[in-house]
């Protein structure tokens, strides 16, 4: 047996020595006619390289990379790093991309290299999307950000000149972020990856040879806008939807936050930027980015919001270092580009600290009691940080055991939050409202209506008895509503007016003309098909009111909270301030602090419910029509309907080429007709309306029941012999004293208001008619029963003195308001169902009215206002709709309104028919609709030839 094993061992040794192909691979000493066998099975690294090469091998703008050179350089670098047999895509792809970039050295111009570097960037993302299908988003995030870091770090090794490093960096970052949608399917993940990409790029650029301090600062300054723009593309690819202003702000904040975080990192990784220079770099980044934002159309309307975000994110970097914070504030105040007040800095600093504190709490998993959350919320109110306060109050409310004070504050801030809801902000931006607030802080503290403005002036003339002449003082009207438009300059030609200000002739925008034209410009731009979606969006935003109502129901009538001047303002109270104030003995102004409670919140909620009711009612009527088409015809800038004076650039008549026959009547689109689903909208509107009345009635009852010991500002009061030394408290006491002196009169008014709301609720619930005194708010006596307004209120505070049906007073059945959309035009005016145009009537005796079938110049024509009771809503009319000049005639519950001959002709006759009046020789052309006739009459001022060519 031993011999057997010995022989076996010898045999194995022989085989090993002389080349057993099966065991050791091909031999080289065999038959010379047989080629040696080489193992050329592709490795995983080869797969990645081949996938990458296939993505960039096609020419771009006529530029083709040297593929073989690129492949050789990539393989050589992988071998140097020991990755040639790696099966890790996360290890391979950064080396593949950066090596491909290095292979460009010595080939082509800088601009040609930048084109190829962008292509390499995109190819890298595509390879990740194809090869990492089973990887997590976090793993993909690491791969993509590592590619960015590797490429940016090796920009100079590709032969790019120092002058092009900044541009190449921006293009690399932009290309990678823009294509993240190919890798990621979640919007939130895109944001986090983009932050990583930007951070890696910002730090990596410091490692480039030839990058000096100025170049680094310039590159960093531009990255926030580059990143946010690229993020828009990436997020849109992920979500497949338009980017609204709310999302654009979120994207920009993510991009800017990544850059500011990088700035802090840079100070510890390079000598180019020292720690003490962080503040100056942050200010420069703000200046450059702010300037770029203001010159970029897509960010117009967001400039103030984004300035605030930059301020807050920059403060987060420096507010833990007293020296850096002080330097940063000093440099901000001296900046020629940034206009930031001390109050804005203070508020942003508080918000930044609060957000950092909250982030730290969440990271540490810190759990607070409800009482602790409420204290944190109240502290934020003291800092005027309403957004932060709302976050803490929300958490306290979510805990389920919040105090009544916290619930009241939560309710107030939640109601206010409706104004900053993303749907509301989108509508505001689309209408053109500049700098509409996006946060509660902006809503409460900033005056967004006067941050940017156009202005007009008017003179106030006051007779001076001494000089025997008028003293003239010039005042200016400020306005910005609807002024946010994408090309403001186009309005200057038609809206500029010459005025004299202090004896100097200046050109100023005519505010009303500008605002009106800008509004319609924005409507056709953002809502070309009509306004139904506007109503729907705003109504949807009010849904939060339901949860507020639930909370208020659990709060007692004695719950209260206080708000003061310093919660909203940092500046000293002056005579011109709007806040209620009083003059103290030392001639200083004392602000009033207000203590309010459930009644006041119910009053505010009532107003919002009424607003919601009106909006819901409006949903029952269609506001959709082809706004964009009407703008094309009728806009005052270059619409085809007008003829312009080349000198004044004002419309002076109708253009000879204008063809009204191409203009569709809005009635054909169903404009102002009842909308599909009208019944459900009316039912919702009725519910909101009843809530509004109910909350108002509750508020009246609560206020009436308040006693002299109530803490509320709106309550009876006995003068305090030892008033508080606190000026805010003293101001409140003075205010309350003045209210207390009139309390009996106030209660009388509340009694009358309660009767009114209760009658309205009864009418809604019972579908019955109620009556209101017509002289209720009169300022003069109507008979001997009362001689003043106070006496009128006193008289009607007794429900037995209210009118009934017997005395012929006008009555209202509010239930009828919600049976059908009575303000839809087809419920007001009789329409011809076949033509979707108003039905035309004629009459010889103004008593009997018959449908008109043909046009006769000697006849008088009318449209029929079908029901002057509005579906039974109003009763007790006599001849309220009849006029003295015989332009309207009543027949039972209908009213016939006289219309011009050309309007009747335009509806009765087919479009294009003409006739010439024997009265004045005017030629009329039928437009096919009353709308067309009215438009032509409105704009056709040039009738010197006595010919109406359009109607």
Protein architecture, described:
- By secondary structure, the protein is α+β, with helices and mostly antiparallel strands.
- The chain is 50% helix and 10% strand.
- It contains 33 helices and 22 strands.
- The chain has a five-stranded antiparallel sheet with strand order 16-15-17-20-19. A three-stranded antiparallel sheet has the order 11-12-18. Strands 1-2 form a two-stranded antiparallel ribbon.
- Strand 9 and strand 10 (651-654) form a beta hairpin.
- The protein is globular and about 105 Å long.
- It starts with a helix and ends in a 12-residue tail after the last helix.
Keywords:
alpha+beta; 3-stranded antiparallel β-sheet
**Looking at the structure, what is the overall shape?**
globular
Tally the helices: what do you get? Answer: 33
* Portion of residues within helices: 40-55%
Main sheet specs:
5 strands, antiparallel
Mean pLDDT: 78
Question: Over all CA atoms, what is the radius of gyration?
Answer: 38 Å
How many runs of DSSP E, i.e. beta strands?
A: 22
Content of β-strand: 5-15%
Q: Give me the secondary-structure category.
A: alpha+beta
Task: Break the fold down into its secondary structure elements and pairings.
Blueprint: H1 2-18, H2 21-24, H3 44-56, H4 67-80, H5 89-102, H6 110-131, H7 137-153, H8 165-178, H9 187-204, H10 213-239, H11 245-269, H12 278-294, H13 303-318, H14 322-334, H15 342-364, H16 370-382, H17 386-399, H18 404-417, H19 422-431, H20 440-445, E1 454-464, E2 469-479, H21 489-495, E3 496-501, E4 504-509, H22 511-526, H23 532-541, H24 545-553, E5 560-563, E6 581-583, E7 589-591, E8 594-597, H25 598-619, H26 627-634, E9 642-644, E10 651-654, H27 678-704, H28 727-741, H29 743-766, E11 770-771, H30 789-796, E12 811-812, H31 825-828, E13 831-832, E14 837-838, E15 840-842, E16 850-851, E17 861-865, E18 874-875, E19 888-891, E20 894-899, H32 901-908, E21 914-916, E22 923-925, H33 930-939
Antiparallel strand pairs: 1-2, 3-4, 5-8, 6-7, 9-10, 11-12, 12-18, 13-14, 15-16, 15-17, 17-20, 19-20, 21-22
Helix pairs in contact: 3-5, 3-6, 4-5, 5-6, 5-7, 6-7, 6-8, 7-8, 7-9, 8-9, 8-10, 9-10, 9-11, 10-11, 10-12, 11-13, 12-13, 12-14, 13-15, 16-17, 17-18, 18-24, 18-25, 19-23, 21-22, 22-26, 23-25, 25-27, 27-29, 29-30, 32-33
């Amino acid at each position: 047996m031993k011999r057997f094993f010995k022989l076996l061992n010898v045999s194995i040794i022989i085989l090993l020595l002389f080349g057993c192909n099966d065991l050791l691979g091909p031999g080289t000493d065999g038959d010379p006619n047989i080629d040696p066998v080489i193992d050329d099975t592709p490795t995983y690294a080869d797969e990645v390289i081949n996938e990458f090469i296939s993505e960039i091998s096609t020419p771009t703008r006529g530029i083709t990379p040297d593929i073989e050179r690129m492949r050789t350089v990539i393989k050589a670098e992988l071998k140097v790093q020991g990755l040639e047999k790696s099966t890790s895509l996360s290890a391979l792809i950064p080396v593949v991309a950066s090596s491909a970039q290095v292979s460009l050295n010595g080939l082509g111009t800088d601009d040609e290299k930048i084109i190829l570097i962008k292509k390499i960037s995109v190819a890298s993302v595509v390879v990740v999307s194809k090869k990492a299908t089973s990887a997590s988003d976090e793993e993909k995030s690491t791969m993509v950000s590592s590619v960015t870091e590797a490429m940016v770090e090796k920009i100079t090794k590709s032969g790019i000149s120092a002058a092009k490093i900044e541009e190449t960096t921006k293009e690399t970052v932009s290309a990678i972020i823009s294509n993240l949608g190919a890798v990621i399917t979640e919007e939130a993940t895109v944001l986090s990856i983009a932050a990583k990409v930007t951070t890696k790029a910002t730090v990596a650029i410091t490692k480039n040879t030839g990058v000096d301090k100025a170049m680094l600062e310039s590159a960093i300054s531009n990255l926030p806008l580059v990143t946010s723009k690229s993020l828009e593309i990436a997020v849109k690819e992920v979500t497949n939807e338009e980017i609204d202003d709310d999302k654009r702000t979120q994207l920009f904040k993510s991009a800017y936050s990544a850059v500011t975080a990088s700035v802090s990192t840079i100070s510890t990784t390079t000598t180019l930027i020292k720690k003490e220079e962080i503040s100056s770099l942050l200010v420069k980044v703000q200046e450059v980015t702010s300037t770029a934002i203001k010159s970029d159309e897509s960010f117009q309307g967001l400039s103030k919001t984004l300035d605030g975000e930059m301020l807050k994110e920059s403060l987060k970097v420096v507010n833990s270092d007293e020296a850096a914070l002080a330097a940063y504030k000093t440099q901000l105040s001296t900046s020629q580009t940034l206009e930031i007040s001390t109050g804005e800095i203070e508020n942003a600093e508080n918000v930044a600290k609060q957000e950092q504190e909250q982030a730290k709490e969440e990271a540490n998993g810190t759990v607070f009691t409800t009482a602790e959350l409420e204290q944190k919320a109240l502290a934020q109110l003291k800092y005027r940080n309403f957004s932060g306060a709302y976050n803490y109050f929300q958490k306290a409310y979510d805990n389920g055991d919040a105090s009544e004070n916290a619930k009241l504050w939560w309710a107030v801030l939640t109601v206010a939050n409706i104004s900053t809801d993303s749907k509301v902000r989108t509508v505001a931006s689309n209408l053109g409202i500049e700098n509409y607030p996006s946060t509660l802080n902006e809503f409460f503290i900033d005056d967004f209506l006067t941050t940017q403005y156009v202005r007009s002036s008017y003179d106030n003339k006051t007779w001076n008895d001494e000089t025997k002449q008028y003293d003239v003082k010039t005042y200016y009207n400020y306005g910005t509503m609807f002024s946010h438009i994408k090309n403001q300059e186009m309005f200057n030609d038609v809206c500029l007016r010459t005025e004299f200000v202090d004896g100097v002739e200046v050109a100023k925008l005519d505010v009303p003309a500008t605002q009106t034209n800008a509004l319609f410009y924005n409507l056709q731009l953002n809502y070309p098909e009509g306004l139904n979606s506007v109503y729907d969006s705003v109504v949807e935003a009010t849904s939060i009111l339901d949860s507020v109502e639930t909370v208020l129901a659990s709060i007692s009538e004695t719950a209260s909270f206080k708000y003061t001047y310093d919660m909203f303002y940092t500046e000293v109270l002056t005579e011109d301030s709007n806040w209620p104030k009083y003059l103290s003995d030392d001639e200083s102004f004392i602000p009033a602090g207000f203590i309010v409670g459930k009644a006041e919140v119910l009053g505010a909620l009532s107003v919002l419910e009424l607003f919601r009711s009106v909006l819901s009612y409006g949903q029952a009527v269609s506001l959709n029509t082809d706004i964009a088409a009407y703008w094309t015809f009728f806009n005052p800038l270059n619409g085809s309907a007008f003829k312009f004076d080349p000198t004044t650039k004002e419309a002076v008549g109708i253009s000879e080429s204008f063809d009204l026959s191409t203009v569709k009547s809005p009635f054909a689109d169903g404009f102002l007709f009842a909308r599909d689903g009208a019944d459900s909208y009316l039912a919702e509107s009725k519910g909101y309306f009843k809530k509004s009345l109910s909350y108002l009635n509750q508020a009246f009852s609560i206020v009436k029941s308040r006693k002299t010991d109530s803490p509320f500002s709106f309550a009876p009061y006995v003068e305090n012999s030892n008033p508080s030394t606190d000026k805010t408290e003293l101001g409140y006491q003075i205010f309350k004293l003045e209210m207390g002196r009139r309390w009996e009169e106030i209660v009388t008014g509340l009694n009358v208001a309660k009767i009114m709301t209760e009658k309205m609720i009864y009418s809604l619930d019972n579908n019955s008619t109620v009556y209101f005194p017509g002289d209720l708010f009169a300022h003069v006596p109507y008979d001997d029963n009362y001689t003043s307004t106070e006496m009128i209120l006193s008289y009607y505070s007794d429900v037995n003195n209210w009118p009934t049906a017997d005395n012929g007073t006008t009555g209202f059945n509010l239930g009828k308001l919600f049976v059908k959309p009575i303000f839809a035009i087809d419920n007001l005016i009789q329409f011809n169902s076949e033509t979707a145009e108003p039905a035309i009537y004629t009459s010889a005796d103004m008593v009997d009215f018959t449908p008109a079938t043909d046009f006769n110049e000697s006849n008088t024509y009318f449209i029929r206002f079908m029901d002057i009771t509005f579906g039974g809503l109003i009763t007790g009319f006599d001849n309220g709709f009849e006029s003295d000049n015989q332009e309207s005639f009543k027949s039972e519950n209908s009213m016939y309104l006289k219309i011009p001959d050309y309007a009747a002709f335009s509806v009765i006759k087919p479009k294009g028919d003409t006739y010439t009046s024997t009265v004045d020789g005017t030629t009329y052309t039928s437009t096919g609709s009353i709308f067309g006739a009215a438009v032509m009459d409105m704009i056709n001022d040039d009738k010197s030839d006595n010919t109406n060519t359009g109607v």
